[in-house]
Amino acid sequence: MKTPTHHLLSVSFAHQAQKQAAEAFACEFNLPCQALHKAQSELTLNFTEMQLELIDLSQNMKLSIDFVGGSLGHRKKYGGGKGQTIAKAIGIKQGKPVPSVLDATAGLGKDSYVFACLGCPVTLIERSPVIAALVKDGIERASLNIEFTEIIDKGFVLHNCDALEYIQAIESNNKPDVIYLDPMYPEKKKSASVKKNMQMLQKLLGHDLDTDKVLEAALDKAEKRVVVKRPKGAPVLQANKPPTLNYESKGTRYDVYIIQSR
Ligand SMILES: C[S@@+](CC[C@H](N)C(=O)[O-])C[C@H]1O[C@@H](n2cnc3c(N)ncnc32)[C@H](O)[C@@H]1O
Question: Is 165 annotated as a binding residue?
Fold first, then answer.
């Protein structure tokens, strides 16, 4: 797995009890490790008794994943539903079976979680070991909650690997209905619309410049459609065909490529 070489990143632990786990992660990915109060890098992946968290020490900001409470839990209870734009984009229709979704750029797993709440079995692919570790921790904590059991039972499986390799290896009898892509997009300066969490992600990961290739592979391996999430006004990704249609919601566009039956 690709090692995060970001010089701004280290691993830390809140108490001695988490030292061993933190050191094991740091050793696997060749990162410095120390107690939190000694951390000097801008970003640190901090092991605590309660959760795994990414801390931006320069802005005193913390990011951890909560699939049960917080904004995601709120969206599950009160938002969403089959009428939301993202549901239409992946082809959800009243009275039709829900599609299986391969989220090839899972990030913090928010969109994946929306698909799961709509009833879809979801496979999450995330290449950053740091982000994947945060999502894995979120899944493990949520699994203790009865409300999350249904989602786990339908399928909510994370793989820390590169999407291009994963997609290329999909066999013809095992194609996901939908392959979903939401690459990091170069933002103009620090716009107010870039949420704080996304700013931390941009600091850690930079921009995804190789998504055209992932899209080509996805067009070959999706059973029904490929969906690419873009900021409104952004150019479409390069591919050997244009999107079949698109959906727009506040600030976001979903480019949909319908796969003709082969
Ligand atoms: C904008 S974020 C996705 C946010 C996500 N949709 C959410 O709802 O939280 C893009 C993520 O895709 C990951 N990514 C980009 N290219 C990838 C690839 N080829 N394989 C696996 N992950 C990739 C990046 O590491 C980053 O975490």
Answer: no
CB 258 within 8 A of CB 225: yes
Each residue's pLDDT tens digit, 181-230: 999 987 655 565 567 788 888 899 988 888 999 999 999 999 999 999 99
105 ligand 1 Cβ < 6 A: yes
Q: 70-258: which CATH number, 3.40.50.2000, 3.40.190.10, 2.60.40.1080, 3.40.50.150?
A: 3.40.50.150
Which atom from ligand 1 is nearest to the alpha carbon of 108? 9
Nearest to 226 by CA among 52, 68, 101: 101
Was 253 annotated as part of a binding site?
no
CATH class of the region 9-63: alpha beta
- 36 CA distance to ligand 1 middle (Å): 27
Beta pairing class for 225-231 and 252-258? antiparallel
Ligand 1, atom 5: closest residue by C-alpha = 107
Cα separation, 164 vs 65, in Å, equals 25
Cβ of residue 219 lying under 6 Å from some atom of ligand 1: no
